[in-house]
Specification:
Blueprint (H helix, E strand, L loop, with lengths): L2 E5 L3 H15 L5 H4 E5 L3 H11 L9 E6 L9 H13 L4 E7 L8 H9 E5 L8 H14 L6 H11 L3 H15 L8 H5 L9 H9 L3 H13 L4 H23 L5 H8 L6 H8 L5 H19 L4 H15 L3
Helix pairs in contact: 3-4, 4-5, 6-7, 10-11, 10-12, 11-16, 12-13, 12-14, 12-15, 15-16
Family: Belongs to the DNA polymerase HolA subunit family.
GO cellular component, one term: DNA polymerase III complex
Pfam family, one: DNA_pol3_delta_C
Amino acid sequence: MPVYFYWGDDDYQINQAVKSLIDNHVDPMWRDFNYAKINAAGDLEVMDGLNQAATAPFGTGDRLTWLADTAIAQKCSEALLAELERTFKHLPTNSYILFTATNKPDGRAKSTKLIQKYAQVLEFSLIPPWKIDAIAQLVKQSAAVMNLKITADGIDLLVDAIGNDSRRLNMELQKLQLFHGQKAAAISAKEIATLVQASAHNSLQLASAIRSANTSQALSLTAELLRNNEVGLRICATLVGQVRTWLWIRLMQEAGVRDDKEIADAAEIGNPKRVYFLKQEVQGLSSQKLMRSLSILLQLEGDLKHGKDETATLQTAMIELCQAMTR
């Protein structure tokens, strides 16, 4: 299939998939002629990319046109929709086109239906940091691909140290591969601890510190996350997700709902058994406190997206969030 649509917020996995497409289709000797990456935020840029993709490649190998950060699966004019369909139907057999986007395609949009008809659609989303079992499974799968045997306690240590950071997981597994060589024995947690910075501090622990109004711990965790190259917007996104979940739990409780499955459905929690623990977490918190916190986080997201200093902006928000939990 000559059309690909990759979406999700795991930039590392998307970039790895793109690299695989380039390696498989583009002759390195003809790359300057047959590979193009276009920031396709607007209709004109998408049109330009479609025109390039419709051109047969030069020399040997195939052509690959990458339209990055596109919004065609969210909104698409009728003119662009017609151009997409015309291009998809008449792409040269040795020309490939790739669209990438952060947001999930809108299933109601005509363009999404067109993409689903002609393209191979793949999701590359980060595993939510609270889905420990899913992260552990990713660690196991990634280790197996690299022919690494890791003990159960070693897997647990990597999950705690790395969280849902797929880029760092790949880097740490490569490090372990070099260290372990061709040894038959599985790598233990003790061995891993000597090579991997086993910092269990993550954005969920930061959310816990905020919930407890522990300002000094929240600031310390924020500083450590930034030192470990965690992106401010990703920290913010995790906090937004956690606070929103707490808010749903609290609102359902205040409405008199007692059934955990009903609460799980409303809060979009996959495992209803998790609701019991979430109820313990929101004890002592009112929906008003959580709504104030969510407002602060949405302001933080806007400030970060507008390019404000990441460290100072996050520090200010952490103080405000802890204060909101005490009012």
